[in-house]
Amino acid sequence: MDLLSPEAVRAEFAHSTTYLNTATCGVLPRAAVAEVRRLAEAAGAGTPDGFGDFDRVDRARDAFARLAGVAPDRVAVGSAVSTHVGLISAALPAGSEVLCVEGDFASVINPFVVRADLKVRFAPLESVAEAVGPDTALVALSAVQSADGRTADLAAVRAAATAHGARMLVDASQAVGWLPFDASPYEYTVAVGFKWLLATRGVSYLTVSEEAQHTLTPLHAGWVAAEAMWDSTYGPMRQPAHGARRFDESPAFLAYHAAGPGLALLERIGIDAVHAHDTALAARYRAGLARLGHEPVPGDSPIVSVPGLAGHQPALMAAGIATAARAGNLRASFHLYNTEADVDRLLDVLAG
């Protein structure tokens, strides 16, 4: 069976709304809901199964690594992108120049801005590559813009950063899960798990290239960051973990138990198929908007934002259609559980 057919999708999910808001938060598959329920009930019963399972955390790490095109030992797990970015920010020498994108998501900007001893510059998304200069130490940007779905020319930025000896930090939170994404060209990438990866809040991933391992200090190292984790619960660790696991935070187990089924579903379908499905729905919506006389922000991602229509979001929600109001835009985002009927229903309501 085609796993993107409406019948197959209905078997995997149980949402009751016309849900077009994955860029805010994805829908949990039924299997993920069941995993969270099992862990919560075991915790409530006071049985060892309620402690949480590190093997499930590592399986999520491994699955994310496959989706991101890196080895598992290049992936650290945590709870929030801002924490990962803060680790990178803390490692920069005073006076370092960081180049960011105008209007990018705050979590990829603020950890640098709050350091008064860093020089933070901003450039429009379309001209970031040209803005990289000889003094730039780090370029930090999102692969896909949260506010409006515009995609970065990462290859051009990588070439410019390499030419000037700068490192790159890419936030793939609005990319990995629908867009074929390779983290290996970049020193650092970050991504949350609760959007296109179909988990809950409390899951985030940091990739660190082998060459950049020495640039970061595991400032929030607990016992889980030790090479011999179970022998390091008391006193100083003898040795940090090999690879990026030294940057691990203690996992939020409910969130990581939820992460596995969503990642498994994405791998079963294949990101290329998800990409084709999601972008086809977005193209259908764009064409319908044009017929209604609306002009969305240009692009070809499954995040479609329409300037001036943010005020429609409450009425759409009242009609059972979940969208978002972002930066003055009405933002709709399409993922594997959406259908052409969802697109048409949104257009019908916008048409009045």
CATH class of the largest domain: Alpha Beta
What is the fourth-level CATH superfamily of the largest domain? Type I PLP-dependent aspartate aminotransferase-like (Major domain)
Question: Going across the major beta sheet, what is the strand order?
Answer: 2-8-7-6-5-3-4
Give the CATH topology of the largest domain.
Aspartate Aminotransferase, domain 2
Could you give the count of β-strands? Answer: 12
SSE string, helices as H and strands as E: HEHHEHEHEHEHEEEHHEHEEEH
The backbone outline, from C-alpha atoms, is: globular
Overall radius of gyration = 21 Å
Helix content: 25-40%
Q: Describe the biggest sheet?
A: 7 strands, mixed
Kindly state the mean pLDDT as a whole number? Answer: 96
> Whole-Å distance between the termini?
36 Å
Q: How many distinct folded domains?
A: 2
Short description:
This protein is α/β, with parallel strands linked by helices.
Strands, helices and their partners?
Blueprint lengths: L5 H7 L5 E2 L10 H16 L8 H15 L6 E4 L2 H11 L5 E5 L8 H4 L5 E5 L4 H4 L4 E7 L11 H10 L3 E5 L16 E5 L11 E5 L44 H17 L1 H21 L11 E5 L5 H6 L2 E2 L1 E3 L2 E5 L6 H11 L2
Parallel strand pairs: 1-10, 3-4, 3-5, 5-6, 6-7
Antiparallel strand pairs: 2-8, 7-8, 9-12, 11-12
Helix pairs in contact: 2-8, 3-8, 9-11
